[in-house]
Amino acid sequence: MACPDCGSDSGEYRVASSVETHGLDCGPFERFDQEYIVCRECGGRFDIGDWESGPEPPSDLPEPALVVPMGHLDQV
């Protein structure tokens, strides 16, 4: 996957944790974890869903091909 802003495929996964006390020292406490990716090229911070829906980086690899063993062409 690639960065939605610059198209770089170099990102770093991070988790930010926070605790909400609702103004009380003795509880109840709520813990929130936010997962995100920081782009190593432009420094942008993106939600994982935004990063995964970004443009695919160009690939120099050839398209995958179907390989069928000899004698099994009638089963394709």
What does this structure look like?
The protein is mainly beta. It has one domain. The chain has one helix at residues 48-52, and strands at 11-20, 30-39, 45-47. Strands 1-2-3 form a 3-stranded antiparallel β-sheet. Strand 2 (30-39) and strand 3 form a beta hairpin.
How would you briefly describe this protein structure?
The chain is mainly β.
Number of strands: 3
Spatial arrangement of strands, main beta sheet: 1-2-3
| Intertermini distance | 32 Å
Number of domains: 1
Number of helices: 1
Strand composition percent: 25-35%
User: What value does the average pLDDT take?
Assistant: 75
Major β-sheet annotation: 3 strands, antiparallel
Secondary-structure element sequence? EEEH
Parts with pLDDT < 50 across at least 5 consecutive residues: none
Indicate the percent of residues in helices.
under 10%
* Main structural class: mainly beta
- Rg from Cα: 22 Å
Oligomer classification: single chain
Give the overall shape.
elongated
